[in-house]
Amino acid sequence: MLYLVVIVLGVVLGVLAKGRVSNILNLKFEKLWLLLIVVCIQTAIRLLALRGLIDAGRYSFVTQGAAFTLLMVVLWYNRRLFGVVVIGVGTLSNILVMMLNGGLMPVSSELLKKIGDLSGSLELMKNGSDGKHILINEATKLPLLSDIIEMPPFLGWLMPIVSIGDLIVAVGIFLLVFLAVRSSSSQS
Description:
Blueprint: H1 2-16, H2 33-50, H3 56-77, H4 82-100, E1 105-107, H5 109-115, H6 121-126, E2 133-135, E3 149-150, H7 153-156, E4 161-162, H8 164-182
Parallel strand pairs: 1-2
Antiparallel strand pairs: 3-4
């Protein structure tokens, strides 16, 4: 929901700055098809882990490393777009904390308990079945960059707890959309 809100905000403010929504169609991204591979890798590992067919934590470092490498290639090829540079900074923050913690994003168990953990994430993380997250503990490296920020309910739907990197990515998405809409010729 957070990313959807910043997209809408970027469009609205871009239009208020005398831009046109149709300018978004002029954005030209390179190597975007690589994101499909990233999504497929992450989805496959998550599904296999949730069904108990693999120990996702065991392969997380390699699978997340591959996904992050492809994602960074996409960001690199599109670095001419200012918002993408900011998205890259947030992404690097998330990559750093995840790769230092075995390819998994550490999450605050206190915040999971506070929000009610409706999806059962806490139990999945405790037994190592999550495949993308682990609980913050004394061995966690760079806990400051972990998922430790509680989102307000209207923004937190689907992402109730975020990292600093996630917030930086949101700023980058906003800038990308706002600058595209506001632009007279758009960025290409």
